[in-house]
Design a protein that fits this description.
Helices cover about 40% and strands about 15% of the residues. It has about 325 residues and is of the alpha/beta class.
Length: about 325
């Protein structure tokens, strides 16, 4: 009989964490999924299952929770994202690196079944091919966020090769969701623009109109994460980070998609420091290895995502 899996989610109140927590609770049962974060403003989320406060830098507290709940898998989602990380690079490095090492050491000591670590297109840089960026390529990140994600990928690979820790990793594009507000990333405009379209009818974008970035709707990101984590170990051939792709678009193109539903919506452009970060990232991603190794397939394009975003956000925001 297969042993019951008990899952610890670190950073559960973030943009990805809130939706991944719901999916994991449906999969394993509420009593077997422990959501944690350093703070969580959403009281209803905290009450939907087991919730514990956890500073990801507190390895002792993390180990205590692993012992108390007999944890077998950790999803480590806590991180400082790209734009915020540039405002406080030393703390971003400390948070992003030390928290991961806490997770990997606990996984090694407790012989946990699996560890999940999210990476990002932030690992790429100006030297990386911009179009159809391959899995194996030049990786030369320009932000502390990207540097820490690149290092994290290699720590995961090291713990797998050296200690047998089954650590798995995806390089996410920009993630778009109607459930949680963005958390300080360069791709966050593609979430905020939907809110502004409904609340104000106009949006001032911090990127130029023709800045293409790889993006993904949150249901696809959750699906991809779970597909990876539930694939047989022998199918996982990349132990740094798998490229993961769905759609790529520019602010001009997402504006046109929104105007299909809200014709009066308008946009203006005032690029800031985030433009340089975006310019260092690819326009599109080649994820052929993820599709070949464990069967990844995305479901949403720009049009279907836009329709679903607006339908769901209308239930949340005050319309203009």
């Amino acid at each position: 009989m297969t042993k019951q899996e008990n899952v610890l989610i670190i950073g559960a109140c973030g943009q990805l964490g809130t939706e991944l927590t719901v999916a994991l609770r449906k999969m394993y049962g509420e009593k077997h999924v422990v959501a944690t974060d350093i703070h969580c403003a959403d009281e209803s989320f905290k009450q939907q299952g087991i919730f514990e406060e956890l500073n990801a830098l507190d390895g002792q507290r993390m180990a205590e929770l692993v012992n108390r709940y007999q944890i077998t898998q950790i999803y480590h989602l806590a991180a400082m994202l790209s734009a915020k990380g540039e405002q406080n690079p030393l703390f971003a490095w400390k948070l992003n690196m030390e928290s991961l090492l806490n997770v990997l050491e606990i996984a090694r000591e407790k012989k946990l079944h699996k560890v999940y670590f999210p990476s990002s297109i932030g690992v790429f840089g100006f030297d990386t091919p911009k179009q159809n960026t391959p899995q194996q390529t030049i990786i030369n990140p320009t932000t502390i966020y990207g540097i820490s994600k690149q290092a994290g990928e290699h720590w995961c690979s090291y713990y797998f090769q050296k200690f047998g820790v089954d650590a798995r990793c995806l390089r996410y594009p920009g993630l778009i969701s109607y459930n949680a507000l963005p958390g300080g990333g360069t791709t966050d405009y593609a979430v905020d623009i939907y809110y502004k379209a409904l609340e104000q009818g106009t949006y001032e974008c911090f990127l130029t109109e023709d800045t293409y970035l790889p993006m993904m709707y949150m249901p696809d990101a959750v699906k991809g994460t779970l597909d990876l984590m539930h694939a047989p170990a022998e199918q996982i051939k990349t132990r740094t980070g798998y490229n993961l792709a769905a759609i790529s678009f520019s602010p001009k193109e997402i504006t046109k998609a929104i105007q299909t539903h809200i014709p009066e919506f308008s946009i203006s452009y005032k690029p800031d420091g985030r433009q340089q970060i975006a310019d260092s990232w690819p326009d599109s991603i080649n994820d052929a290895e993820a599709r070949a190794d464990w069967g990844w397939q995305h479901q949403y394009d720009l049009q279907t995502m836009t329709e679903d975003m607006l339908v769901n956000l209308k239930k949340k925001v005050v319309l203009v």
